[in-house]
Design brief:
409 residues; six-stranded antiparallel sheet; binds molybdenum atom; mainly beta; five-stranded mixed sheet; disordered N terminus; 25 strands; Sulfite Oxidase, Chain A, domain 2; single chain; binds ligand MTE; Immunoglobulin-like; 2 domains
Length: 409
Amino acid sequence: MGTNSATAHTADNTSSAAALSRRTVLGLAAVGAGAAATRPGAASAETPPDGPILKPLPEKDFVVYGSNAEMRWDSVDHDRFLTPQPRLFVRNDTSTPRIDPHSYRLEVFGDGLRQERSRDEAVSLSLAGLKRLPHTRITTVHECTGNGRSFYGTQQGTPAAGTQWKLGAVGTVTWEGVRLREVLRRLGIAPDAVDVMATGLDPSYVDKGTDYGPVRRPIPVGKALDDVLLAWAANGRRLLPDHGFPLRLVVPGWVGIASIKWLGSLEVSRSPLTSPWNTKWYRMTGGDWPADSPPLTTNPVRSAWELVEGESLSRRGGRVLHGRSWSGAGRIKHVEVSVDGDTWHRVRLEDHRDGWARWSYRWPGATAGDHALLARATDVRGRTQPDVARFNDGGYFFDAVVRHPVVIV
Ligand SMILES: Nc1nc2c(c(=O)[nH]1)N[C@H]1C(S)=C(S)[C@@H](COP(=O)(O)O)O[C@H]1N2
Ligand SMILES: [Mo]
């Protein structure tokens, strides 16, 4: 999504890259070179046990599912475009680690660096060193691949296992950091590098007795050198621990799992890399999907009403209702709403940029009784929300129009 409006406050281009020479980064690297292969700065054994999520999760704003929490759409401030960090959903495979930003290091290694480096010879970058590189801001829709999963069961009668998200595993954030390409170009990347594996510093993920190791997922070099950000701030504030403090990856428009939090290392490789997070999970399996579906990348189009479920509305109408639509592929072109599923009305888009659109609709009234409000968006790529989402075992990409129950009185 090179079209994402990226605002560079300092020059974000290759000539400035040349100015800040390769030596600068490698010089910084020397500070932490040969740093422990263990997790630098991760929670120590003496730290008292925390819950899986550290920030407050008031019931009026969140629904909590173990180590995950979704934003309640009825708690959203209609007028606010961005999602404040305290309100943003959290998705943790394990639990939020507490990381000391001073001892924190990002380790970069692999045979895809121009000068090949083993894990033991990794270039070790401090947070302060990274912050000396050109800053960039990017506004992205940030969304979990499984957002809407519960509707495979409740709306289509084919439940999928996993966190039973409604539509609140999404938000839109202005991230600040340094482009991954700035860092890779300074370090020198081999012309035939293909993949970059990002690994988190959170505890290893263990499920039903299998230890899958730390959360990690590769991204192709093309995306890595395009718009991927190493982010240390969100909406002008430093990252909250739950959202990846002190540094996370942000992979614009792609499935949330690509945006690895608490980024500990990057392996740049000349051969394809895999992890269970792109082979076992986060690809389509089951249903009528072919056995060899590729790892998921760009998020689909979805819409939500900023209303409680079962809200009562007057049959005489008049009230202005609010909602949002979003896409991983770029701008929302238009949104239509319906009460009967037959007649659709275009709604007024308020701010709509970077794949996130606020809209409003003056409720026209309807006959008393139980009804469902429907909203259906179309994005710049011409992708429109279908009536039925295509089932898959992981319950990913529920993009069908969701029926929002209301009672008309
Ligand atoms: N290290 C690490 N990174 C991670 C995860 C995780 O559990 N560990 N979860 C991923 C998933 S599935 C999503 S949807 C996003 C959620 O980011 P958030 O919790 O900041 O909203 O982070 C991704 N990055
Ligand atoms: Mo996710």
